[in-house]
Amino acid sequence: MRFEAEVIAAYGRHLRVRDATGGEHDARPFGRRVQAVCGDRVACEHDAAHAEVHVTEVLQRSNVLERATTRGGAEAVVANLSQIVVVIAPAPVPDLFVADRYVAAAASLGIEALIALNKIDLLDSEARSVADAMLVPYRKAGYRCVTCSATRPESLTALRAALAAHVSVMVGQSGVGKSSLIGALVPNLDIATGALDRDAEGRHTTTSACRYDLPGGGAIIDSPGVRDFAPAIDTLEPSSLGFLEVDRLSTQCRFADCQHLREPGCAVRSAAEDGTLDARRYESYRRLRRLFEDLREKRGPGHRSDAARRPVR
User: Fold this and answer.
1) In angstroms, rounded to a whole number, what is the distance separating the alpha carbons of residues 284 and 278?
2) For residue 29, which phi and psi values (nearest 5 degrees)?
3) d(CA 137, CA 292)
């Protein structure tokens, strides 16, 4: 019997799907060509002989968050999103270059991005001022930012409001408290969490992607913590690479195909030099541009992508 369902958890090749009646089933892809991820809508069939459910087809996606592989290819992470929530925290030390790449991916996909500064309960007044200053370039660029703590329910109001009516994925470095936040947002939920190890690098406390419905509407997907992330190059907007302020400034560049590195008459580079554009954000753009070109070169000549180009918001 064929039926359609949504993938609500993905453990490698092991899946958990929910059908239209709300029933949940353990499932597995039928054949190597079926590559389903959390958030996918899929076609399934009951295999009565083996008492299992097979996922036979991934239905059309509205979008998919993909990471770049070392050879310039793409690996799907989660699908059918309307928002990416990037969680940062005072510990482990924030890698804002990773945060930049996630929000660039969101802009290139044409979906919302939100930056959440978690664990504010760990900050004294001086450290809080430093952390708030870290968010200023993002707010100036046009990104929404909230502050929160899983241990302070009153601090979650803005985050809850930002999640309502969205299908969001929560991403970020290992140890920033994504699972603890979801546990605070979804009542009676049992999610395994872990502490930071001795060198202040976050452990991977989430080993799968799981979807949870939120009491106030919307859904959140918890994803494994990362030490690094690079968006798949075919999903990036090729001119600005998803940097909102670069996109706005690029209309003033002398050349339409300006890459904003060494070209004369580059409005982006000029803005970075005079302080109009945050210097760290510009350096982040430069790093992603170099990676973009390196990965494209690794794929070699003649590569053709059928990935759709999406405009930056």
Assistant:
1) 10
2) -65, 145
3) 23
pLDDT tens, residue by residue, 161-210:
999 999 999 999 999 999 999 999 998 876 544 433 334 444 433 458 99
Positive or negative: CA dihedral 134, 195, 189, 171: positive
Question: Chain-wide mean pLDDT for the chain?
Answer: 90
C-alpha distances in Å from residue 267, one per residue of 32, 97, 293: 47, 22, 21
Q: How far apart are CA 168 and CA 2, in angstroms?
A: 28
- Cβ neighbors of 203 (< 8 A, separation 6 or more) are 174, 175, 194, 195, 196, 197, 225
**What digits encode the pLDDT tens for the residues 78-119?**
999 999 999 999 999 999 999 999 999 999 999 999 999 999
What residues does 274 pair with on adjacent strands? none
Site of tokens 């708030």: 132
Residue 48 identity: A
Which two tokens mark 52?
């299992």
Element (H, E) at 25: strand 24-29
